[in-house]
Amino acid sequence: MMFKKKDPSQNSSERKDNKKRKKIKKKSIAILCAIAVAIAATGFGIWYFAIRDPENQTGTALDQIGPGDLMTLPQAEFAKDEQIEVKDYTVYGTSLVFYDRTFEPMKTDGFFGRNCSLRNIATDETVTATFSGGADSGIDLQLLDEGVYEVYLADGYKPKRAYMPSYFLSDPFYTMSDHGKANEIRIIANPTFLRKYNVVYDQAYLYLTVTKVDEMLPTVYDVAINPSGTSGVNEYGITPAPLEDGFNESQQSWQLALLVKMRLEQAGLRVMLTRDEDTYTTTLGGDSSMAKAYEANAKVFLTLAMNSNPNYGQPYIVSSPFTNAKLGDLISSTCQNLGAPLQVVSHTSELKQGNIYDDFVKDQAYQYTRFSMTDEIREAGGKVTSAGMMSDWQGNAAFSDQYGMNSVVFYYASTANIESHAYYAEHVDAIADGIAQGILDYASIHNSIKLD
Fold it and tell me: How far is 384 from 289, CA to CA, in rounded Å?
């Protein structure tokens, strides 16, 4: 058998053709890969901008939660018997309470005694609180982790999805800071709030958003301390004289305010004083101590003052009757534990020793009104305590619908009892520690007070 010998020039031509075909094949694969990448990038871009474009930005923690971050998708719809209407709410200190009617301070609400559940849409975890009647004993906003929460209210044994009659967006609420770290909280009722997950409702369902604040606004404070008294002429043209033993209310209030402020700031809170050392302060009007505290978004309003009861030789606290007196009880407990027990002012077992509710004002028919007696408590509570609505107090009308500050008055001594001055002087450091620690406990901030 004879084999035909190939022409060398022909082999060279075939090799060139093969190389050319391989180059074309590689180029085609590269083009296909580029097209695939472009399609994927386009798909991601469509998803990304659907989630992140300005029209979908809420300015809340929702912006950080993509569809892939959800443990389960939100429930698509709720039947009529799975819904419950919320008509109003109050914020007092760090506590949020919802109501089934327009808030009226002297009437029991239909949500009294009910559980409120907040479901974190990302983690599916639930936080539960009970509305127990006091404005300071609702949902503790200080304890909520960052996230977006659906709101449910118990109706019998069944939790129902809460909604509001129409679209609503609250003013921001800032939690008390822990060394500069805090959260901004908003209350939102919006049927399209979860549209990024393709969920749109026919009701303005209720949400709480808790968004981390990287840097607290310089105008926002946690505690406003209101030292009573004045070293100069007061609004009535009277210059108050020091007491016979040299115990001057203005000076003592100022010094105690500095001691408490130092302790709270050392533990990480932001604290403001409502007056300078040598100026007079009032609780009425746009330039008042009250106005300064509201403008600073304070959560606690602490007044330091002297009482005129000759029978009181130890300090005591007055709390708002619209609350469960939580802050006053905590201050009382810490003072007691630190060796500075307070005056027995009430024999009720409802409150801790040395803590008492403010009295209500009576009208001409001797019927109780919606107003409590002490203006430092009444005017600081915003909506809860009807600030600015009492006769002759319309100068504070701007505060009547604002978030309320948890206000207590700490009477550290009596102008009519010299023994109380000696008791205070002996226990002043323990009293300052007790007040500061009580406020920290109220805010659930566990930083210890360590002073040199």
Answer: 19
